[in-house]
From TrEMBL:
It is found in: Cytoplasm. It comes from the Eukaryota. This is T-complex protein 1 subunit delta. It holds the Pfam family Cpn60_TCP1. InterPro entries: Chap_CCT_delta (IPR012717), Chaperone_TCP-1 (IPR017998), Chaperonin_TCP-1_CS (IPR002194), Cpn60/GroEL/TCP-1 (IPR002423), GroEL-like_apical_dom_sf (IPR027409), GROEL-like_equatorial_sf (IPR027413), TCP-1-like_intermed_sf (IPR027410), TCP-1_chaperonin (IPR053374). Molecular chaperone; assists the folding of proteins upon ATP hydrolysis. Known to play a role, in vitro, in the folding of actin and tubulin. GO terms for biological process: protein folding. CDD domains: TCP1_delta (cd03338). GO terms for cellular component: chaperonin-containing T-complex.
Amino acid sequence: MAAAAAAAAPSRKTETYTDTKRRDDVRGANIAAARAVADAVRTSLGPRGMDKMICSGDQAQEVIITNDGATILSRMALLQPAARMLAELSRSQDAAAGDGTTTVVVLAGSLLRRAQSLLSAGAHPTAAADALHRLATRAVEILHGMAIPIELSDRESLVKSASTALNSKVVSQYSTLLSPLAVDAALSVVDPAHPDLLDLRDIRIIKKLGGTVDDTELVTGLIFDKKASHAAGGPTRVENAKIAVIQFQISPPKTDIEQSVIVSDYAQMDRILREERNYILGMVKKIKAAGCNVLLIQKSILRDAVTDLSLHYLAKAKILVVKDVERDEMEFITKTLNCLPIANIEHFRTDKLGYADVVEEISVGEGKVVKITGIRDMGRTATVVVRGSNQLVIDEAERSLHDALCVIRCLVNKRFLIAGGGAPEIEMSMQLAAWAKELRGMESYCIKEFADALEVIPYTLAENAGLNPISIVTELRNRHARGEKNAGINVRKGQITNILEENVVQPLLVSTSAITLACECVRMILKIDDIVTVR
């Protein structure tokens, strides 16, 4: 008996009780907060998804109507750190692919729900996180196996993928107009020297109230969302234009320090005014001598870029003036006009000018714009004028057009298409579940659970379209089990069809980015076991 007690003593010393309640509570709170965010945007997924009306709480009372996941989450006032992680996840997807911003959040919410059930069953968070990492790598391989290579010369396929991105938007009824417009704008700025690079900063979107979205157009040239200066009766149309972009002021100089000059004699006052006139007149003569007849003046923060007197002299010289050009637009303007910005009047030379056939002021909607067409040696840029009956429609049309352009950018970077309509998610789910059977232990169990989580996308698509999600997802599984990889949910017909034949396609990069980012975010949330607040 004594020997048995002595043998049991060391084992009692090694037995320790660890209280994990706080860790479980923190992890549970994080998962609950993140899932609440995912559930909030879930109803806006897919072509039949609902829209959200976002009202700002400040005095401006700004209202936005949208179903773009990134826009909804960026406007939410989220306080819980894990909930903010899902908003940043959506922003990351927007930066990486431009589309799928709702999909990535819904996926993350579903993975977290499965992770919570795994933790409740006794799985360790690290084991679940490691299984997620392996699952993401395998899922990307499965998606690559489903992908269809395309060429940029295949305009029809590009238009189809842009249409799929637009079909879930508020302005989906205008997808037949906006899709080709987005494709033409994107392809016009792709540099043959760098065929796999598309910079969306080379595409400028200008919003003008009035008309309908049908009046949206792609302009081969340059548009300024402001009127030409009419202060002294200057010209509003110039042919064979020689255009200068200036960054200096055509106004009397000021001292570098703040000071007052008191003039007590009328003769001195006359002399000051005469010197000002001569100074401005000298500048205008130099501008005219270089042959310039259109002047684009950068907005100045130090002093007035132009005065009434300088506008009078420029009008007498028959020079069309567009003033208050924003500083951040200068690079785009000089690239389009293929000219150089002029920082000093002494550097005003003919070789720094841009040339165009016509510069004119035209009426668009309720206002006027300056339009430059027939630009000689025009740079690789494009301008789109978005029209709409009210500001809410215009803003949503701009966001939708940006998403369509991002889809084209994805295809320029990675030239593969993949079926939409929930087909890739079901295929991934089935292949990953089959792979899980080949594995052993906790990893096999975790991967099986997370594979089932991917079915949330087709389930939600069917639910938002008013279909029976259980019967639709079951039928979809059966079709994929028979080897129909491209079978997906056709929300218009309310049945399962070959989604490629219905022209519902999306870039491979959107799907791979969504699964990778969602898994990464969920892994990070699972590994948090405490929240430490510092002052």
